[in-house]
Amino acid sequence: MTDPRRNLPGVDVLLASEAFRPVLADYPRGRVVAAVRDALVLARGEIGALGEAAVPADDAEWARRVGDLLSVRDLPSLRGVINATGVILHTNLGRAPLSQAARAAMVGAGRGYSNLEFDLDKGERGSRYVHCVDLLKELTGAQDALVVNNNAAAVVLALNSMAAGREVLVSRGELVEIGGGFRIPDMLSRSGAVLKEVGTTNRTRLEDYREAAEGGSVGAILKVHRSNFRISGFTEEVKISDLAALADELGLFLFYDLGSGLLADPGKLGLPPEPRAHESLLAGVHAVAISGDKLLGGPQAGIILGDGEVVGAMRKNPLCRAFRVDKVTLAGLEATLRHYLDEDEALREIPALRMLSAPLDDLAVRAQRLCQELVEGVAKARVAEGSGVVGGGTCPGVDLPTWTVRLRPIDASPRALAKELRSLPRPVVVRVEDEEVVIDMRTVEPDEDAFLLAALNQASEACG
User: Fold this and answer.
1) Hey, do 82-91+356-463 and 99-349 end up sharing a CATH topology, with the first three levels equal?
2) Taking the domains of the chain in order of start, what are their residue ranges?
3) What is the rounded CA–CA span in Å between residue 132 and residue 127?
């Protein structure tokens, strides 16, 4: 029997066919040639699995396949998605969505030239590090502030500036992994500081720090907020104010890797008490690092707040240039921070905060409406209560009550439907639980509901 792969058309034959004229009109010839070759390779593989049925029936079908390949390749690699997972600060989906004002500011900064490093009053070179500083000082009470490109960079910069070549005391219960395999001990080592562990995993006392500081070359105490896990039961840790008093007594630098970046009142967001930067500074911490793209609700950034002399030393460190932040990020961060001048505005305008404080009744109404408007006959749909999480390595153990739409496809598996939703030009990312596709309304913006409905109907019909 003849191998069907021997009957596949040649590249030149397909390109010369009438069916390929529209494709060649839409794309450069070189790209079409490459796509035809790839389509032929795919067809050879499919023939091995499916036989002759995998071969396109005619030139028109070949043209459609090649056109589909080119269309997919024209999609940007980094695309906006609908987050229906119920994870508000979803690290894999870019963490905090930005406010309208932040997006507009970033577009404005990227549209043309800016005064990024230009002093408009003096008409001479300025510094990018002046932007956002006054706002951060006003909002947190810090003497000075420095913005770098992420929180991990802020930690490395701080320790390298204040404790390079010296020991840094860290409680064993705070030697955390922050995700992606990056661990506090490794980052501390890269900063040039030397880790000295204190206490035990579950209990660390003030005297443990005092004893560890004796004799050696201790230069700093590092406090790490356990923002991505909880230790409960037989536990003990030192108050930040007591650590500050000890650091001052012994002449040590006290640095707090706070991480989450919460500036708003956690009670207004339905969250349990969460340490905030201004509280830590009032307690006597010399410098604090927070993230811009977590509970602050802005773009990715590492924000160092603290004593003027300490922050000034970090600004002069050559590593600061390696970690420096760009103009677009600074513009988005400034716009986000301006919302906090009026906390009610921040709760209203910053999407992450708005999602956290969304009334359950509103989520229920939206879920019911979405469920009712789905096309019948392709999936069984129901509305159900559920729970989401804050995400982004923050607020571990906090469940966010929510309302969900749950779909059970009739002629396909839930995972097939989830994959179809991800393959849309604007992908929809969902959860799959108990053989159902779960749409969590808390992380879907109200103005995305109509698009989500169309996407669900389209994907469900494609799976049917």
Assistant:
1) no
2) 10-74, 82-91+356-463, 99-349
3) 12
Q: State pLDDT tens for residues 301-319.
A: 999 999 999 999 999 999 9
Query: What's the distance, CA 361 to chain centroid?
Result: 27
pLDDT attached to residue 145: 98
For domain 99-349, give the fold: Aspartate Aminotransferase; domain 2 (3.40.640)
Contacts of 349 (CB under 8 A, 6+ apart): 99, 100, 101, 339
Residues of the chain where predicted confidence (pLDDT) is lower than 50: none
* Amino acid 181: pLDDT: 63
How many CB atoms sit inside 10 A of residue 112's CB? 6
| Predicted local distance difference test score (pLDDT) of residue 232 | 55
pTM as predicted: 0.89
- Residue 330 C-alpha from the chain's centroid: 17
pLDDT at 117: 95
82-91+356-463: what fold? Aspartate Aminotransferase, domain 1 (3.90.1150)
Nearest-10 Cα torsion for 19, 24, 30, 35: -40
What one-character DSSP code corresponds to residue 130? G
The rounded distance, in Å, linking the Cα atoms of 149 and 332 is 13
